[in-house]
Design a protein that fits this description.
- By secondary structure, this protein is an all-alpha fold.
- The chain has one domain (about 1-75).
- The protein contains 2 helices and no strands.
- About 5% of the residues are buried.
Length: about 80
């Protein structure tokens, strides 16, 4: 799931660069909006299953308990595997 989030983020970065010089391209803008929503959904799914990736995802974490960054495993401890 994390790999998919990174792939979609890369597409968004590329589209951002393209749209900087082609702002009238409605097809590219539509794709940007679609991929942006896809990344948001993936991050919400990841937060619900594991832990929030960003502070924007904290509320999407498991609702049954409060989240504390210090309580979760660190990435070098295999958290992102």
């Amino acid at each position: 799931m994390l790999s998919k989030i990174m792939e979609v983020s890369f597409v968004l970065d590329d589209l951002t660069l393209y749209l900087d010089t082609h702002c009238q391209d409605s097809q590219a803008m539509d794709l940007y909006q679609k991929k942006s929503q896809e990344r948001k959904d993936l991050k919400q799914q990841f937060a619900a299953a594991f832990y929030p990736l960003t502070r924007d995802c904290i509320m999407d974490c498991k609702k049954d308990k409060a989240f504390c960054w210090q309580e979760g495993p660190m990435p070098w401890e295999g958290a992102c595997v």
